[in-house]
């Protein structure tokens, strides 16, 4: 069983004529590119060279001397860890691909040529793990949001003559850290847990110094909570904005560069974590996460326009597919929202749900009213992971959906029994607004699907077979790594009583 594509991205390719396209996919730590003409290329991160430990010299002993009782164990070289892609975006001109590998906290920039060969131009290691990236409208700056709540700007193409500022000669001596809580101020279970954590932190001693980023970057803004997504928007009067979301139910609208420190306002309404933001073709903002609703915003005026009942839609769809044997849906975790090109429509994916859900979002530019309606569910053969749109004509696109071919549909833990499951499904929009499976595009992506890689941090063995126990569960450390990489959205949900 092959490893799924956890990330997809696409661009228009006019080199081979109108209607040309190139699809990019990340399977573990490998990037794959295929054009409409059929050419395919791959990129894999080179293995880091690990120096072998030098054998210790054996001491010669005289006959009357006794050898040491303890044997010294030679240290083993550290195990190489794959750096799997977690984000993948394409510049608006289609010339550059920007990807994030989470394990090494690295932002990688690739350039593609007319043969779609991938050439890595730069790799920049952040001090904190990036959770989302975006490009400004002119493709000159990368916006990187990390899990500690900060947003940095980095030039897409680093300046060759940039020199990092010199570090201070003498480190500043920090005062001894003292926990803010004491046994006399503990009044609740949460405070007791906080005190225990602070005492453990004190025993560990001061934190090691944070590695400095030696490349050009700038801190733009920050949240007091974990950031989950970032998007950019530009209004008719040519003003740019940065919209960010976090785990603490906040949607913040900030001005664009160079005034990103100025907060225009907040969109309040969520009661659970926010995971995804999407700016539609009509300029509306759609947000979703752990709530039973999607929210449609007039973000310029911070006004909630509509609530879309995503939980009810998911529950009804699962009931209509008894072959899934899924339990009744009592909560959802939105894992993706995509705006359909050339249409006022969005596609929505939820974690562990083998379907996409289409909503029509229509808004007028002169008033703040918006009409939104649920359109249909697109049944999939596996849980939806990512979506990319291939331009087929100036007014139509085909949706390519990456599905989880390792786990059973509607499950994030049980392994499939089928050995050969297609990793991609393709759909085209019909005149009646419904989506229908597109066999022609699926056939064109046959070589893209047939790419097989040896992925260490996943449920794939060296022979390409799935690894799982006989009961169909995932138990090994590598299997857990795969599950964590594909299904991490629900972990953002706060435990009951966490705010007490």
TrEMBL record:
<comment type="similarity">
    <text>Belongs to the WD repeat TRM82 family.</text>
</comment>
<feature type="compositionally biased region" description="Gly residues">
    <location>
        <begin position="459"/>
        <end position="475"/>
    </location>
</feature>
<dbReference type="InterPro" id="IPR001680">
    <property type="entry name" value="WD40_rpt"/>
</dbReference>
<keyword id="KW-0819">tRNA processing</keyword>
<feature type="compositionally biased region" description="Polar residues">
    <location>
        <begin position="32"/>
        <end position="44"/>
    </location>
</feature>
<feature type="region of interest" description="Disordered">
    <location>
        <begin position="32"/>
        <end position="85"/>
    </location>
</feature>
<comment type="pathway">
    <text>tRNA modification; N(7)-methylguanine-tRNA biosynthesis.</text>
</comment>
<keyword id="KW-0539">Nucleus</keyword>
<dbReference type="InterPro" id="IPR036322">
    <property type="entry name" value="WD40_repeat_dom_sf"/>
</dbReference>
<dbReference type="GO" id="GO:0106004">
    <property type="term" value="P:tRNA (guanine-N7)-methylation"/>
</dbReference>
<protein>
    <submittedName>
        <fullName>tRNA (Guanine-N(7)-)-methyltransferase non-catalytic subunit trm82</fullName>
    </submittedName>
</protein>
<comment type="function">
    <text>Required for the formation of N(7)-methylguanine at position 46 (m7G46) in tRNA. In the complex, it is required to stabilize and induce conformational changes of the catalytic subunit.</text>
</comment>
<dbReference type="GO" id="GO:0005829">
    <property type="term" value="C:cytosol"/>
</dbReference>
<feature type="region of interest" description="Disordered">
    <location>
        <begin position="459"/>
        <end position="478"/>
    </location>
</feature>
<dbReference type="GO" id="GO:0043527">
    <property type="term" value="C:tRNA methyltransferase complex"/>
</dbReference>
<dbReference type="InterPro" id="IPR015943">
    <property type="entry name" value="WD40/YVTN_repeat-like_dom_sf"/>
</dbReference>
<dbReference type="GO" id="GO:0005634">
    <property type="term" value="C:nucleus"/>
</dbReference>
<dbReference type="InterPro" id="IPR028884">
    <property type="entry name" value="Trm82"/>
</dbReference>
<keyword id="KW-0677">Repeat</keyword>
<dbReference type="Pfam" id="PF00400">
    <property type="entry name" value="WD40"/>
</dbReference>
<feature type="compositionally biased region" description="Basic and acidic residues">
    <location>
        <begin position="45"/>
        <end position="68"/>
    </location>
</feature>
<keyword id="KW-0853">WD repeat</keyword>
């Amino acid at each position: 069983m092959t490893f799924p594509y956890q990330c997809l991205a696409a661009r228009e390719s006019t080199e081979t004529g109108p209607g040309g396209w190139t699809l990019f996919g990340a399977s573990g730590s490998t990037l794959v590119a295929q054009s409409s003409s059929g050419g395919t290329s791959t990129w894999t991160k080179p293995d880091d060279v690990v120096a072998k430990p030098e054998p210790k010299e054996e001491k010669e002993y005289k006959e009357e001397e006794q050898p040491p009782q303890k044997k010294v164990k030679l240290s083993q070289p550290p195990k190489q860890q794959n750096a799997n892609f977690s984000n993948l975006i394409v510049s608006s001109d289609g010339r550059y691909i920007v990807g994030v590998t989470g394990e090494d906290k690295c932002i990688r920039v690739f350039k593609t040529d007319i043969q779609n060969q991938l050439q890595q131009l730069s790799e920049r290691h952040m001090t904190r793990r990036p959770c989302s990236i975006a490009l400004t409208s002119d493709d000159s700056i990368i916006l990187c949001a990390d899990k500690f709540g900060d947003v940095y700007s980095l030039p897409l193409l680093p300046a060759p003559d940039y020199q990092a500022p010199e570090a201070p000669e003498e480190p500043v001596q920090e005062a001894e850290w003292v926990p803010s809580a004491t046994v006399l101020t503990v009044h609740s279970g949460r405070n007791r847990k906080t005190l225990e954590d602070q005492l453990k932190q004190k025993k560990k001693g001061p934190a090691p110094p944070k590695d400095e980023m030696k490349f050009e970057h700038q801190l733009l803004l920050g949240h007091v909570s974990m950031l989950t997504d970032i998007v950019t928007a530009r209004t008719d009067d040519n003003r740019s904005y940065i919209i960010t979301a976090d785990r603490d139910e906040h949607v913040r609208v900030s001005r664009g560069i160079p005034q990103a420190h100025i907060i225009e306002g907040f969109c309040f309404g969520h009661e659970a974590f926010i995971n995804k933001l999407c700016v539609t073709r009509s300029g509306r903002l759609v947000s979703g996460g752990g709530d039973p609703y999607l929210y449609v915003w007039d973000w310029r005026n911070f006004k909630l326009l509509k609530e879309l009942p995503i939980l009810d839609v998911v529950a009804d769809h699962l009931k209509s597919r008894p072959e899934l044997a899924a339990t009744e849906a009592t909560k959802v975790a939105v894992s993706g929202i995509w705006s359909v090109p050339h249409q006022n429509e969005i596609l929505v994916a939820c974690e562990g749900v083998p379907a996409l859900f289409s909503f029509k979002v229509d808004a007028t530019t002169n008033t703040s009213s918006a009409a939104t309606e649920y359109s249909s569910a697109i049944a999939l053969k596996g849980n939806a992971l990512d979506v990319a749109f291939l331009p087929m004509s100036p007014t139509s696109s085909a949706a390519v959906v990456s599905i989880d071919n390792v786990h059973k549909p509607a499950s994030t833990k049980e392994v499939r029994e089928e050995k050969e499951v297609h990793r991609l499904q393709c759909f085209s929009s019909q005149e009646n607004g419904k989506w229908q499976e597109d066999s022609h595009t699926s056939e064109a992506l046959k070589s893209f699907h047939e790419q097989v890689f040896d992925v260490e941090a996943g449920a794939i063995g060296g022979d390409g077979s799935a690894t799982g126990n006989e009961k169909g569960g995932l138990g090994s450390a590598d299997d857990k790594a795969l599950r964590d990489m594909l299904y991490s959205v629900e972990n953002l949900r706060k435990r009951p009583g966490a705010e007490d």
